[in-house]
Design brief:
single chain; alpha/beta; 8-stranded parallel β-barrel; 8 strands; elongated
Amino acid sequence: MSATARKTAPLPDDIRARKGGTPIVSLTAYTTPMAELMDAHCDFVLVGDSVGMVLHGLPSTLGVTMEMMILHGQSVKRGLRQAMMVVDMPFGSYEESPQQAFRNAARIMSETGAGAVKLEGGQGMAETIAFLVARGIPVMAHIGLTPQSINTLGGYKVQGRGAAGTQLIADAQAVAEAGAFAVVLEKVPQTLADRITADVPIPTIGIGASAGCDGQVLVVDDMLGLFTKFKPKFVKRYANLSEQAEAAVAAYAEEVRTRAFPAVDHVFADAVPEAKS
């Protein structure tokens, strides 16, 4: 069933059941208006910790807090009727122990109305994923380039080339066996992404991976051309709204300075206009 025909939001099991079927569509969102725009077109909407860079001007995702994720999750939820919402667990909120992860994931779920949480990590997070799933918290995994680990990965590099691909295959299998209902593959070679997609029983969601993945996700501000500090190779810009917005602001500033705005249509008369008969 297409996202546009669906009347209620899917559950994680519905996303899992899409394995090998019609590709799953996802974008990030951080605000109610943006969520409303994409609701009818996405199967799930991701409240990504990319919000730290996109909306808050942070240099990476490492400074994002639980309070930020919950605030933006609440905002996005108000704009959704048909798409499922997944909320990222921020850096430092789940790595210490499965118990810490459960406390914070439960808080995100209860305070935002999310359908699931997403966390980064492969084999090393399998125990935590299993712990959460056993306690009623659906988990979407994230392997390959994991932005919260850029300091140990040495930057935003492609992951899994050559012999390193063996570890990513093991990571994908581990998170699937632990109970994740889907796994994001970020910035991995196309052939490896295709192999992982064929090997694991859960949907793969690509971002800089392969069209052969079971679905795709992009940061909405990237694909709309709103975030322009840099453009990853895997981003296709479907619009250049930043250029249009800047042109509109410049036109407004010019009209204010020349007193062309506000015009007669934008001001109020001294007397109440008479009603037309």
